[in-house]
Amino acid sequence: MKLLMIVLIMQRLTELVIARRNEKWMKKQGGIEVGQAHYPYLVMLHVLFILSFTVEVVVLQRSIHPSWPFILVLFLLTQIGRGWVIYSLGRYWNTKIIVVPDVKLVKKGPYRFLKHPNYVIVAVEFIIIPLLYEAYITSVVFTLLNIWILSVRIPTEERALQNLTEYGREFTKHNRFLPSFSKKV
């Protein structure tokens, strides 16, 4: 478990460094930040998730799940997905909602298939990371809290994209839930 915790913490800290660098660049491009009111709750959610997971495993003496190899593969797939998201968005990836007006939407990588793949990845992580060590309380509580924060965050992000980019027009052309097998967009 120690190695997993070190990996998660280092990963999150690295993402914050990337996000801060990208934030500076996007704001120089005229990027507008929205959702500042809920952002501290999002950060708190992720910090408390790691703490809750650690406490539940240590205090309640949870053991590794019998299906840990399968769960570990799922975890590794989420990490590949996370990297794919960050790579695909490039300088536009951030932990905050920052939209550069009139920017061309990213429609490559996982964004060919989903509007918000990063949120799907985090939702899966909030389930499988605790399950790896049978931390069922953390899994349930943080899945529910994540649903709540995303019920605020996604509409906020959608409104910003709708108001500042061609987002609305693009999604009347095609659905971003299933891959498009027609001409490349």
TrEMBL record:
GO terms for molecular function: protein C-terminal S-isoprenylcysteine carboxyl O-methyltransferase activity. The keyword Transmembrane applies. The chain crosses the membrane at residues 38-60, 67-87, 119-149. The gene is ypbQ. It comes from Robertmurraya siralis. It comes from the Bacteria. The keyword Membrane applies. Pfam families: ICMT (PF04140). It is found in: Membrane. One of its GO terms (cellular component) is membrane. Its main location: membrane. It is a multi-pass membrane protein. The lineage of its organism: Bacteria, Bacillati, Bacillota, Bacilli, Bacillales. Keywords: Membrane, Transmembrane, Transmembrane helix. This is 15-methylpalmitoyl-4-hydroxy-2-pyrone 4-O-methyltransferase.
